[in-house]
Amino acid sequence: MAITLFPEQVRACEDTDSLRESGHKHVLTVLPTGVGKTIMQAEYARRAHVQSKIVLLFAHRDVLLGQLSEACCLMGVSHSFICSEKTVGLVTNNNSAKFGDSFHNEHSSVIIVSVDTFLARIKKGVVPDVFLNRVAECTVDEAHHLTQNSKWGRCVEALPNARVIGFTATPIRGDKKGLGSHADGYFNAMSVTSSMIDSIRSGRLTAYKILAPDVIDVTGVKKDKDGDFNKKALLMKTKDQGITGSAVEHYKKHLDGQPVITFGINIEHCIEIAKEFNDAGIPSLAVSSKSLDSVRQKAVADLRAGVLLNLVNCDLFGEGFDAPAVMGVIMLRRTESYSLYKQQFGRMLRNSEGKVFGLLLDHVGNTKYFMEKYGLMAPHDDPEWTLDRVDNRKKPIDEDDDEQRIETITCSECKAFGILKKADDEITADDVGLIFIDGHCPECGHSETDEEKEDRKREIKTKQGELVALEFDVIESLISQRNASLRSVSAFGHSLGNAPFKAAAMDKFARKQHALSVLRHWIQEWCSKHGRITEQSVSLVQMDFELKFGINIFKAQNLTDSKMSELSSRIQYQTGIMK
Fold it and tell me: How many CA atoms lie within 13 A of 232 on its CB side?
């Protein structure tokens, strides 16, 4: 019954094998969502089984344990379990119904293991040391969780002689920890042989479209230790902005009658989302890790059968969930976790009969945020993976290189989200999703107006330099202070009356006035030249000045005379080398 691996899986196995043969004990294998990492784990289990080696296949959720078991069945590999008796019963019954055989053998050297159950038994001392020492191999599903002092880490450390292969689509963590043994994890090497675009090109995954109807303002929302937003605080902010109604509206407009998965913040949020969808006549159900196994399994079956149209959950169906019939994903949870975002993104890319593309309704701005954060060229791209900590990673794009910077755009009419390109730009095979040529929306035909273009450029520059717009009264005050420095020296002296040190004060005022005059000249020269080159408005040119020189134009004219002279020299130099 053994199945044939796909080319992407073959390449990954060959590269992983090569790294292990070269002496790396623990290898992290990275493959995009939907390529079949579970089948690869079963392949390594099959190999170990042939050699009579004990191999443990670790996962941390019942649904993942079940998928590992199914993969072993497809490989024709009998296996046993270390997990709850209830889970064993559910999984083996499902296998018997699906394959005509449970493939359950208590004496098999292939063991599918629940992380939590294994760790609990280790703590109780009921797992013999002789067994732990004999384990030769283990695989870890969703291995971005595998860090020192974590429950996954304690499981691996209990197996002193085992070689580890970890599998993940996203080797990156919100807490910035690195997965390498030199950082915060256990892996000595990493295999990266294919990307999401490779799988889309080969037909293993579908193409996609993205709509971005809303963006959540997360200003002031605190973060937890894992680096992601505190769920309670995020929920309050999300409720204030009322995006669920928008999600219902856009589902009806773009996905009506099609099965989707919606990701909420927590159980309370998911229940509220499901209610609003149900009230609108869209059969929906909120499920979570606290739902009974039977409820979750029925919900998935109903979604696949079309009885249920919207499966609303918080984190439950991100990692490893396989539902090919899903036509779309609705994101209602803003996140700082790239792994979480990319796992959710991948849920809509599984192939199914008649499916042309998966549709993402991103109501919280996750896609735009992560593209900007990591300098990604497209939504399907990933950062350059590494086993280092995040703080040690290079920025993927030089902030001064405008040629490399990709601009995203959201249509003001239909809310389609995509990449902005010029008419003479090359369109490549990597250009999956929506491409806006010269601001023209490929979905509804709307063309970006001059005002919309100005607003988009202003937003880009503001985020790029973390600029803060000055309030009108602040600008008025700065202009007033600057104008005071432009008075004649005699007028300034007259204002001092018979004050002591009058001569010294007038001399200082004269020096500052001279420095200000020189600075204003060079600001005007730079802005005029930059404006002619870029053909931008005055306000955008002023923003570029702040990005280039690190100070707002109005604030610059209120510096000390020495600081103004220093800035004048910098501007003069840059003006001289401008094209």
Answer: 1
576 confidence band (pLDDT: 50, 70, 90)? confident
- Name the burial class of residue 412, with classes exposed (0-12), middle (13-18) and buried (19+) by CB atoms within 10 angstroms of its CB: middle
Domain spans in the chain, listed from the N-terminal domain onward: 7-195, 200-381+407-448, 472-577
pLDDT of residue 481: 81
pLDDT > 90? residue 532? no
Distance, in Å, from the CA atom of 360 to the CA atom of 210, rounded to the nearest integer, reads 5
pLDDT digits (tens, 9 = 90+) for 149-185: 999 999 999 999 999 999 999 999 988 899 999 999 9
At 36, give phi and psi (nearest 5°): 105, 50
- From the list 102, 55, 53, the residue with the least C-alpha distance to 76 is 102
pLDDT value for 506: 83
Those residues whose C-beta lies under 8 Å from the C-beta of residue 524, and which sit 6 or more positions away, are: none
Largest CA distance in the chain: 106
| Distance (Å, whole) CA 488 – CA 477 | 20
Burial of 326 (0-12, 13-18, 19+ CB in 10 A): buried
Q: What stretch of H or E contains 497? A: none
Nearest alpha carbon to residue 112 among 164, 64, 50, 160: 64
Cβ burial 177-207 (10 Å sphere, 16+ → b, else e): bbbbbebbbbbbbbbbbbbbbbbbeeebbbe
What integer best gives the mean pLDDT of the chain?
Answer: 88
Distance CA(38)–CA(30), nearest Å, equals: 12
Give all strands of the β-sheet with 189-192 in edge-to-edge order: 80-82, 110-114, 54-59, 135-141, 163-168, 26-30, 189-192
The two three-digit tokens of residue 134, written as one number: 């004999």
Enumerate residues 6+ apart whose C-beta is below 8 A from 439. 409, 420, 447, 448, 452, 453
**C-alpha dihedral sign at 424, 427, 431, 432:** positive
CATH superfamily of 7-195: P-loop containing nucleotide triphosphate hydrolases (3.40.50.300)
Which residue has 């979570």 as its token pair?
Answer: 288
pLDDT in tens, 510-521: 888 898 889 999
Do 200-381+407-448 and 7-195 fall under one CATH topology? yes
The tokens describing 118, both together, are 């294994």
Helix pair angle (85-99, 293-305), 10° resolution: 30
186: phi > 0 → left, psi -120 to 50 → alpha, else beta; which? Answer: alpha
In DSSP terms, 7 is beta-bridged to: none
CATH of domain 200-381+407-448: 3.40.50.300
Instruction: Check residue 489 and give its pLDDT.
Output: 79
| Contact between residue 43 and residue 356 where contact means Cβ atoms under 8 Å apart | no
The DSSP string of 55-85 is EEEEESSHHHHHHHHHHHHHTT--BEEES-H
Q: What is the pLDDT of residues 86-110, one digit of tens each?
A: 899 989 999 999 999 999 999 999 9
